[in-house]
Amino acid sequence: MFLRELTAPAGTIRGAGKKTAALLAEAGIPTVAALLTRYPRDWEDRGRSAPLRDWAKGPVSTTVTVLAQDWFGSGPARTLKVYVEDETARAALVCFNRPFFQYELTPGKRCRLWGKFRYGYGELRSSAFEIEAAGGEGPGIVPVYPLSAGLSQVPSRGQNLLRRLVRAALDQYAGALDDEIPPAVIASRHLLPKAAALRAIHFPSTMEELAQARQSLIFEELFYLEVIIGRRAMERRGTGGGPNPAPVGALGEKSPPPLSPLQRRLLDRLPFALTPGQVAAINEINADMDRGGGDREFEGTYAMARLLQGDVGSGKTLAAFFAALRAVDGPGETGQAGQDNPSGQAAIMAPTELLARQHAENAARLLEPLGVRIACLTGGLAGRGSPRARLLEALAAGEVDIVLGTHALFSRDVTYRNLRLVVVDEQHRFGVTQRQAILAKGPGSPPHLLMMSATPIPRTLALTVFGDLDISVIPDLPPGRKPVKTHLVRESNAGRVYDFVGKELEAGRQAYFVYPLIGDDDGGGEGEGRAGDGLKSAQAMAEKLRTEIFPRFPAALVHSRLEDEEKRRVMERFRSGEIRVLAATSVVEVGVDVPGASCMVVHHAERFGLSALHQLRGRVGRSGERGYCFLIYSEREVPPAPPEADPGSPGGEGRSREGRRLMVILENTDGFVIAEEDLKLRGPGRIAGVEQSGYFKLGVADPVRDADILLAAREEAFAALEADPGLLSPENRRVAEVLERAPPFSEVGM
Ligand code: ADP
Ligand code: MG
């Protein structure tokens, strides 16, 4: 029997009476399984001795004699205080809500005592202690359970009650428990069998055994997580392939498929060579796309689902254009557009209008000369008027090959003749439903899906949340890029930043100034701040930049509330160099490419997420000229460093979270490292909407903390699937239930 099948009421445990059962039910522990999976929140090593004198070094564990009792307060707040001593010191036990100790802790009694002590009111005291008559439970490692509701009324008794019941339940039931992962895996990974792991997580005989028990239970959870992921991968690829055990860098030994005719012509026209990372990504995409999907005529069920990760400026757009050309061309050099294999369409979706236009302009410049028909479809296209209607007709008739746009690409009234590829840029901005709408636009089998992200998803998360996607990484930047020089600047020193930027402007370069608010009356800004917090706004500062700070250089303002047409015009003038100073909100965060810009100044940097700051920084230094990023922080929000820390540094241990976060940006240039740090500081739930995924409702496992175990579990789960697809059969009770709970592939989105 499996642990979760122990659905007998907790009242069936020997020694648990009606009253106890009711108490447990109230505390959310109705069944034996619920009791046994209420894992301890901590363990006390009672064999360890730590006398009262050493209270400052950690929890005390000692034998004491009761000296006297006293009461303080009055009425219902009347509280018992018990004085005790061991060989080293005296202390007071403050017995909040534990008046019954007046009968148990009588003067002269010898007791074992555990607890955290501190010094206050002229005495050593504790209210968080446990005590029991000497010769009771005795030494050993004792679990400390999370208490809730009725149980916490009587802290030490609640603990003692749970300990007694868990012990009894283990004796009564654990012997019959079945292992849930294959015995061979248990042996080869040095795990404990289920029953032993369960016993040891509650009552370990050594700290080593406890560690092994935790490992075992964590492994089990992650093993099944990976089984789910592996199964999804198999489904997506059809039954033949088995899950891909090496999701990163997939191509392996095989030689890459040849470029299609259009791809070859684009390559020949490029003024630069592709980076090795771009080449590898394009090869992987080509191999995927040759395997089917999109095309109604094609027999196979395989559709690409690939996540293309690459730091800001690594040239993902170009890789996407190559993919789009292959969709238009049909597979390989041998693929022929014709009746059997009509030329396909590609849709490239960007999160903002600004970015969609930029992509469309790039596509027009690079691809139209190849004879490819490009169009741009955004929400803002002349209302519902005729240009839009004409464009929709053209899409439906297959007269447009590559369409770029925002989510408007997937509005209900948009139909495609032969949509073979969907590229989603900066995919974390798109929600679950949007992803489903996209997949529904395929004519027969779903189109290939390429998602691109410059907010690097840490590998550990990628393996869980995106574990059923293949991943390509462009690890390199185009040659000649110098890392952006980053400075943290106190608000009171902003003047020096203006001086520096002034010199850059003199030298013919351009600068971004980014603010957390649009205007001073701003309710929500672009999501980073609120008016009234004393924050600078883009509107107010644009005026100041233009009239006071840099009166000699043309400045402009861009934010999300501008008309799309206006936004586009401003960006175009900034791109062309006509405008030299751009005041903006975080709308410029993602993707915007202005090669002449050398300075990025972010005000109230402490308000922005790490990944957002990294993105903003990636907007400059894109032309081979040195780029500079100034992160201006408010001293009010980021307290100054302690004297021993690096002067001017807002970070360091013991500093505010904001300070530590800014230091991460200062010290790292690699977006992946920054994302990992962000993850550590904020927890997985806050990253890119991961909280929606439902994957993180794990019990003991934490995919980030337990990354090593996750990788091992993944290896074993995929090997097990490969060897025995029956692992997925409905007859496998454990797996069947896990699968039922898990959201389907298309719902795990961001
Ligand atoms: P991101 O990966 O952040 O989306 P982009 O696609 O915007 O990056 O590319 C950044 C810039 O680098 C663009 O101006 C693009 O033209 C240029 N670029 C792309 N690939 C190369 C390359 N192989 N060599 C030189 N420049 C490149
Ligand atoms: Mg981009």
Description:
The structure is a single chain. This protein is of the alpha/beta class and 750 residues long. Among the domains are: 47-139, OB fold (Dihydrolipoamide Acetyltransferase, E2P), CATH 2.40.50.140; 261-462 and 466-474, P-loop containing nucleotide triphosphate hydrolases (Rossmann fold); 485-668, P-loop containing nucleotide triphosphate hydrolases (Rossmann fold, 3-Layer(aba) Sandwich), CATH 3.40.50.300. The strands form 4 sheets. A 7-stranded parallel β-sheet has the order 10-11-9-12-13-8-14, with helices on both faces. It has a 6-stranded parallel β-sheet with strand order 15-20-19-16-18-17, with helices on both faces. Helix 6 crosses helix 7 (207-236). It is globular and about 95 Å long. It starts with 17 loop residues before the first helix and ends in a 9-residue tail after the last helix. Mean pLDDT is 79; it is low at 239-253, 293-300, 332-340, 429-433, 642-654, 685-697 and 739-750. Bound molecules: adenosine-5'-diphosphate and magnesium ion. Residues 316-317, 425, 454, 591 line the site of magnesium ion. The site of adenosine-5'-diphosphate has 17 residues, from helix 10.
